[in-house]
Amino acid sequence: MASAIPPGDPAVPQGPRPRRAFSARNITLYGALVLIAAYYALPLYVMIVTSLKTMPEIRLGNIFSPPVQITFQPWIKAWAEACTGLNCDGLSRGFWNSVRITVPSVAISIAIASINGYALSLWRFRGSEMFFGILVFGAFIPYQVLIYPIVILLRDIGLYGTLWGLIIVHSIFGMPILTLLFRNYFGSIPEELFKAARVDGAGFWGIFFRVMLPMSLPIVVVAMILQVTGIWNDFLFGVIYTKPDLYPMTVQLNNIVNSVQGVKEYNVNMAATLLTGLVPLIVYFVSGKLFVRGIAAGAVKG
Amino acid sequence: MPETQRPSQLLRNLNAKVASVPMILTAMFVFVGGTLWTVLYSFTDSKLLPRLHFVGLSQYDRLWSTARWIVSIENLAIYGVLSLVFSLVIGFVLAALLDQKIRFENVFRTIFLYPFALSFIVTGLVWQWILNPDFGVQHIIRGLGFSKFVFDPLYNQEIVIYGVLIAGLWQGTGLIMCLMLAGLRGIDEEIWKAARVDGIPMWKTYIFIIIPMMRPVFITTLVIIASGIVKLYDLIVAQTGGGPGISSEVPAKYVYDFMFRAQNLGQGFAASTMMLLAVAIVIIPWAYLEFGGKKRG
Fold it and tell me: What DSSP string runs through B146-160?
């Protein structure tokens, strides 16, 4: 690359992009992009610096200035000592609850959805498309409409207020989008493969476990990203279907920060907020392009 | 399908049917059954427990004469319209900026999209802090010498919903940008070349050629934003708690509070049925356009 072209030099008539690096257009373009990026990055920056300051420093300074004296005390307090109601063991309780909710929910919802998608694309039966249609439209029903019937359902089977109840709820509400994802994926696999397996005598489960599942790793990863962030970030279901001891991290975070008693410790609040956002953020930064694929696949088809 | 297969219809493909039981149960019991149940019980006077004692439309009468519900609807309308317009405009502009064959595209995209990975609770709490008049933006600008500067959306009943909007847009526009970018990338390079040859300025090409071509993308995006708006709940709970007073209440919060706090189930059911109606008004025309014309009649 001819990176040594001095600005102002007439464009060299070779190479793919005969454009000057410092044209007025580029300066506006990159200037705008950098400004907007700064705006989007600002809240994360504010969270980080606030969580590393002491309370006296917060009262004196402004929220954008970097900490003069870095302290990790707020993080320790947010994780292990902050109080919600009678419990004073910090966000760690909510963190582990969220882990215990997220892991089985993700596994179960993906297992169900992959089987659904497989049956819907390769083993259609009478009415299967209708059930699928209902499922997809179900994704648009406001949760508020379904909350109470599910409370009754869970109460009847004795799971209301338990982690397993919440796991069932997450599996139900994850089903439309994940089923769609897997149905489209299996639908794009060449049918010859399926036919060959059938000729070889493999049945419904045989083809699923030996042929289809090993091929579906990419879509499983996309589904996992979608579900981990979605379930980790859930608030509504957590607050309705569990009880205070079992509250997921988001609910506990909200209770810590928005509690009316006691002096507000903004540094602890921001440390707690960051801690709660950490898991989806890590998933996001690690998964990169796959995350985008996941939300695009999830979003475009509703 | 040949007639001879009919007798064994139920047993045909049995494994697939058994495997689909969770899906069928969810579709029929939860989605269809649950919706019908809620609509049915919205015509009853259920209080602490649901009971089938019908009182006609009186829950709806009460709903529409409750100030809090009216405020909730107004807030949702303001938030909905503005978030729709701004999401589309900001999302499209960001996508267009990223589509200029720039360097570091990945870096910029990563920054614009990361808020989408965060929950509404986290979003609400961060913006509650930034908009805090004693420490945040107002405090800083006053510190620069403008001692009369006022910017306290979360403490002002008149503008609190705009404070929520700021946070909501920050969280959601990255997603819209991604969808728009995918749409832009789907447009044939030849069209750009043709427009350039004809000497059409870039902004004109966008408005008169590219955007009309992206109609399907805009429609899906519209549906996604619209169905997200109705769910607005966590953000309000975290950022304002519905306050000051009742000035930032929203329908979803009304439903929750009446079902689980005020123990007036009937009101909750009526309010949630209204939400369903609102969604249906958006979804049904879209579904008709999207699926009605093409194949499934």
Answer: -TT----GGG-TTTH
A244 contacts chain B (CB < 8 A): no
Q: Delimit the CATH 1.10.3720.10 region(s) of chain A.
A: 92-300
What digits encode the pLDDT tens for the residues B81-133? 999 999 999 999 999 999 988 888 889 999 999 999 999 999 999 999 999 88
Q: Where are the beta strands (DSSP E) in chain B?
A: none
pLDDT of res. B156: 87
Q: What is the pLDDT of residue B6?
A: 53
List CB contacts of B198: < 8 A, sequence separation 6 or more. none
Handedness of CA A168, A233, A97, B129 (dihedral sign): negative
| Domain A92-300 class, CATH top level | mainly alpha
pLDDT at residue B286 tops 90 = no
Cα separation of A278 and A230, whole Å?
A: 14
- Asked if A302 and B102 come within 8 Å (Cβ–Cβ), the reply is no
Place of tokens 């090993």: A214
A213 to chain B, any CB pair closer than 8 A? The answer is: no
Tell which CATH classification among 3.90.1260.10, 1.20.1000.10, 1.10.287.40, 1.10.3720.10 matches the domain B67-292: 1.10.3720.10
The pLDDT tens digits of the residues spanning B172-206 come to: 999 899 889 988 988 888 888 899 898 888 888 89
Nearest to A204 among B16, B111, B135 (CB): B16
Q: Which of A89, A110, A108 is nearest to A164 (CA)?
A: A108
Q: Residues A276-288: pLDDT tens digits?
A: 999 999 999 888 7
A141 CB neighbours in chain B (<8 A) are 31, 35, 276, 279
Q: Does A24 touch chain B (CB under 8 A)?
A: no
Per-residue pLDDT for A13 more than 60? no
Alpha helices (H) in A157-216, listed in sequence order: 163-187, 191-199, 204-207, 213-215
What is the pLDDT of chain A when averaged over all its residues?
86
- Smallest Cβ–Cβ distance between A292 and the set B23, B178, B223 belongs to B178
For A301, the closest chain B residue by CA position comes to B220
